[in-house]
């Protein structure tokens, strides 16, 4: 059975965050609001939980799960290094709708899918998501929908698709327009936009000081 917590009420938010944190620590799945769409999340370092997340979505490891963090400083422990371009983008757009792909720290023992030694990182601009992330640490989070179905912009839409495969649903109200994050790959010599979303190519170019080609 799953439980839905109304995070618009202080008591619902407090009890929901406590239940979600306990669920994540126990290897379970939670649905949480973000500033883009609702996400389904698990402990990023629990391989079984990440596998359960992929199974709930009906997705294989060929599409790795991104990682959400609750602070800028968390990134330093997850990647091989944080280049100046990444720091500039983090300072300009985090928390917010920008995902950054970097080489992961070789010491990390996690299994997010076929990442080829990289990790896709983002810090969301949503108070409920940030509270949970700061409580439990980095989470593997993907859009809260079955593969091939529309992303969920409400907790109810997420529950309709994912049902009891998720233990806790944190209802933070409608997410607004379901605009995905922009994804920038910084693993090569020059920035590559893999997906345009909340942040435009022009905004990226202004911060980086070099032209950034939008995704084809």
Automatic annotation (TrEMBL):
Origin: domain of life: Bacteria
EC number: 2.7.7.87
TM ranges: none
Signal peptide boundaries: none
Catalytic activity: L-threonine + hydrogencarbonate + ATP = L-threonylcarbamoyladenylate + diphosphate + H2O
UniProt KW keywords: ATP-binding, Cytoplasm, Nucleotide-binding, Nucleotidyltransferase, Transferase, tRNA processing
SUPFAM superfamilies linked to this entry: YrdC/RibB
Gene3D superfamilies (UniProt xref): DHBP synthase
Family recorded in the similarity comment: Belongs to the SUA5 family.
Protein name stated in the entry: L-threonylcarbamoyladenylate synthase
């Amino acid at each position: 059975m799953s439980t839905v917590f109304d995070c618009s009420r202080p008591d619902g938010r407090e009890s929901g965050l406590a239940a979600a944190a306990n669920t994540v620590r126990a290897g379970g799945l939670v649905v949480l609001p973000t500033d883009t769409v609702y996400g389904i999340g698990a402990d990023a370092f629990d391989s079984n939980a990440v596998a359960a997340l992929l199974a709930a979505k009906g997705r294989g490891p060929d599409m790795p799960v991104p990682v959400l963090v609750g602070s800028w400083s968390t990134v330093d422990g997850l990647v091989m290094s944080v280049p100046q371009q990444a720091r500039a983008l983090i300072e300009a757009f985090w928390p917010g709708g920008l995902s950054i792909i970097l080489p992961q720290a070789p010491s990390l023992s996690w299994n997010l899918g076929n990442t080829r030694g990289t990790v896709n990182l983002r810090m969301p601009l949503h108070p409920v998501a940030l509270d949970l992330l700061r409580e439990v640490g980095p989470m593997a989070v993907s859009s809260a929908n079955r593969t091939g179905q529309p992303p969920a912009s409400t907790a109810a839409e997420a529950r309709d698709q994912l049902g009891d495969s998720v233990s806790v649903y944190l209802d933070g109200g409608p997410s607004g327009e379901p605009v995905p994050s922009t994804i920038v790959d910084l693993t090569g010599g020059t920035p590559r936009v893999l997906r345009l979303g909340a942040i435009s190519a022009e905004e990226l170019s202004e911060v980086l000081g070099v032209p950034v080609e939008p995704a084809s």
